[in-house]
């Protein structure tokens, strides 16, 4: 009987065989916990190289919601809001986790194609410095978007420039960033580090991993908080080598 494949979602697919093999290979002997092992060190360098960001801080986490929650917390106070598309995963598919963990508000913007623009971001500005309303803190975009559209490197750069001009950080939810790179015919760096993004949720689970994502912090000012935020968010695994081994196989 022929195998049945579902195209409803990449969540239906299994893990890549080489990823499973990498996990098994990592299950040998003892290694220091909490990411202090050689496998994690190699995987961090691999992620840095893939994103063209030799100075990035990298933290492996268990799932996409966890990656987004950690990423957003790095740049937000509880009086801030996050500008995102109404269709964004953080807005419609994460059970309020971003708002619960950050204490900040999601300010969702209707879009025809799931993509934010500089004008849409500017259109959210109102009552700046008014203590009675939340203040702009971050912009979050999905690459690819939930509609399957993609941001070009120039579009990401325009959003980053706009966010920075307004005193905000730019977060990129890259659950399917590999798909976007393939569709655009560019490397992973072109719509992340080279385009001015501050923090990336680097997706692995949607691209053949058993259950591993990475938070990649590119903005220097946000780097010192990463390891503390990951721990407090319940995303620090004792046996981190098994997450790292998956990224090594992928990259």
SSE order and pairing:
Elements: H1 17-26, H2 38-50, E1 57-61, H3 64-73, E2 80-85, H4 89-92, H5 97-102, E3 105-109, H6 118-122, E4 135-142, H7 153-165, E5 169-174, H8 177-184, E6 199-202, E7 213-217, H9 226-232, H10 241-250
Q: Can you give keywords for this protein?
A:
251 residues, alpha/beta, seven-stranded mixed beta sheet, 10 helices, 7 strands
Structure characterization notes:
With 251 residues, this protein is of the alpha/beta class. 34% of the residues lie in helices and 16% in strands. The chain has ten helices and seven strands. The chain has helices at 17-26, 38-50, 64-73, 89-92, 97-102, 118-122, 153-165, 177-184, 226-232, 241-250, and strands at 57-61, 80-85, 105-109, 135-142, 169-174, 199-202, 213-217. A seven-stranded mixed sheet has the order 1-7-6-5-4-2-3, with helices on both faces. Helix 7 links the parallel strand 4 and strand 5. Helix 1 packs antiparallel against helix 10 (241-250) and helix 2 (38-50) runs parallel beside helix 10. The longest helix has 13 residues, at 38-50. It starts with 16 loop residues before the first helix and ends with a helix. The model has no long low-confidence stretch (mean pLDDT 96).
């Amino acid at each position: 009987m022929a195998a049945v494949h579902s195209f409803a979602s990449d969540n239906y697919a299994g893990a890549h065989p080489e990823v499973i093999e990498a996990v098994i290979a990592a299950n040998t002997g003892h290694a220091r916990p909490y990411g202090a092992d050689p496998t994690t060190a190699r995987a961090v360098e691999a992620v840095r190289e893939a994103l063209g960001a030799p100075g990035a801080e990298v933290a492996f986490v268990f799932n996409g919601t966890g990656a987004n929650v950690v990423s957003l917390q790095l740049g937000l106070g509880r009086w801030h809001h996050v500008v995102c598309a109404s269709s964004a995963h953080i807005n419609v598919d994460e059970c309020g986790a971003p708002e619960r963990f950050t204490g900040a508000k999601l300010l969702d913007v209707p879009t025809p194609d799931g993509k934010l623009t500089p004008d849409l971001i500017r259109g959210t500005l109102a009552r700046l410095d008014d203590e009675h309303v939340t203040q702009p803190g971050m912009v979050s975009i999905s690459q690819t978007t939930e509609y399957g559209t993609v941001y070009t490197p120039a579009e990401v750069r325009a959003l980053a420039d706009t966010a920075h001009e307004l005193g905000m950080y730019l977060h990129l939810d890259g659950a399917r960033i590999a798909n976007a790179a393939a569709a655009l015919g560019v490397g992973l760096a072109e719509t992340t580090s080279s385009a001015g993004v501050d923090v990336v949720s680097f997706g692995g689970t949607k691209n053949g991993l058993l259950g591993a994502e990475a938070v990649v912090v590119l903005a220097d000012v946000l780097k010192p908080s990463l390891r503390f935020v990951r721990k407090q968010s319940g995303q620090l695994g004792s046996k981190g080598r098994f997450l790292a081994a998956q990224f090594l196989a992928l990259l």
